[in-house]
């Protein structure tokens, strides 16, 4: 006998977790199907930035959506704490993008200016810090640091606690979490959608595909195309040191517990998750040029994870034209966008229509570019 | 902690938090600290609670100590040597000095 729900969210990572939490808060009988820890799990490899600056070149609505999401964050953190008692360690003191040469600095300021001058872009203040101004805020910067750009909307959180909090809060709000339910096929049946999850069946009036790289396979039978590819990112984890870095940076941050993370590599390599030490070396070298004092601090761990990347790098929010009630969501900013997914996207899904302002995020834009 | 009766004499001079102590050849730094009656060798970076040597085989990382000025050394994996300066550590090591508190 199949389990029946109002909505089935297929994929229990940060994207699916946030949407499912939002739907459960609206009183929808929601199932969250999760593959389990054998999944690629971009959500478990996340760097943990809530990041606005620099995003949206070429798609102004994405820049605006990201800003809105960052502003949603304090409310999300508060409600998650209420519903799960988990503190996800959100801090939004603003963030720095550090530049290590005059050429880098000029190019950064030019691209930020160009970004904010786009038509329909809701402009925000970004500040340019020279070396001295940065040193006044951030102790320990190295001789190679020329300056940085700063955006007050940026922040960070603990992404592992966020994933756990989303699941716990979803349960608290009456949602049903179904682990070890890897969706193999989703199809339209009588009165809704039928999901085959390894021999177990789940039916729901609506279905939301949030299966990351798995969306590429699950989507097409429902008239939803997600041209996503894996993009590898590597992270270096240093041992805990006494707090010195009060601001997240694009490539370095210190967690609330003192751990220093170095991240933000981007490599194309298919589904290969193996670590490249040559890339770690470049990451470490840049980090040491920014903070020479980290030289003797030991590396505790390194890891790789696979980002879920669309052809143009922007999220895809799609509703099926041929099969109403089927939606597809994919992005590589599951942390930053979590509040928007829970509070802005979930109600649209519940209403059965994403609405005209979500149109720019449809996969149609990719067809146009390909044509 | 008590030595077995057949244990060799303690003859390796070290200091623990500046106080002289005679360690036994072949002991690890963690064993030396236990023999000296130091059961808590550090406090944790997050909650500040006390930790002491626990697994004695390099797994638990509870026995982190400062050895000759180098922080976060696994005491149970480092053989004691003559003249070693062993110090307990308090909280997280300092990499970059910064005023503490919110920005």
Features:
heterodimer, A: 371 residues, alpha+beta, 8-stranded mixed sheet, 4-stranded antiparallel sheet, 9 helices, 25% strand, B: 103 residues, mainly beta, 5-stranded mixed sheet, 3-stranded mixed sheet, 8 strands, 30% strand
How does this structure look, described?
The complex is a heterodimer of chains A (371) and B (103). Helix content of chain A is 30%, strand content 25%. Chain A has helices spanning 14-25, 60-84, 102-116, 131-137, 159-172, 215-218, 277-290, 338-351, 364-370; strands at 3-10, 30-33, 49-50, 95-99, 126-130, 147-151, 155-156, 176-178, 185-189, 192-197, 200-209, 229-240, 252-254, 259-262, 299-309, 316-319, 326-330. In chain A, the strands form four sheets. In chain A, strands 1, 2, 8, 9, 10, 11, 16 and 17 form an eight-stranded mixed sheet that branches. The radius of gyration of chain A is 21 Å and the shape is globular. The termini of chain A are far apart. Chain B has 103 residues and is mainly β. Chain B has one helix spanning 29-35; strands spanning 10-16, 19-24, 42-43, 50-51, 64-67, 70-74, 85-87, 89-90. The longest helix of chain B has 7 residues, at 29-35. The chains are: A alpha+beta (371), B mainly beta (103). Chains A and B meet through loops of A and loops of B.
Topology at a glance:
The complex is a heterodimer of chains A (371) and B (103).
Chain A: E1 3-10, H1 14-25, E2 30-33, E3 49-50, H2 60-84, E4 95-99, H3 102-116, E5 126-130, H4 131-137, E6 147-151, E7 155-156, H5 159-172, E8 176-178, E9 185-189, E10 192-197, E11 200-209, H6 215-218, E12 229-240, E13 252-254, E14 259-262, H7 277-290, E15 299-309, E16 316-319, E17 326-330, H8 338-351, H9 364-370
Parallel strand pairs in A: 1-2, 1-11, 2-8, 11-17
Antiparallel strand pairs in A: 3-7, 4-6, 5-6, 9-10, 10-11, 12-14, 12-15, 13-14, 16-17
Chain B: E1 10-16, E2 19-24, H1 29-35, E3 42-43, E4 50-51, E5 64-67, E6 70-74, E7 85-87, E8 89-90
Parallel strand pairs in B: 1-7, 3-8
Antiparallel strand pairs in B: 1-2, 3-4, 5-6, 5-7
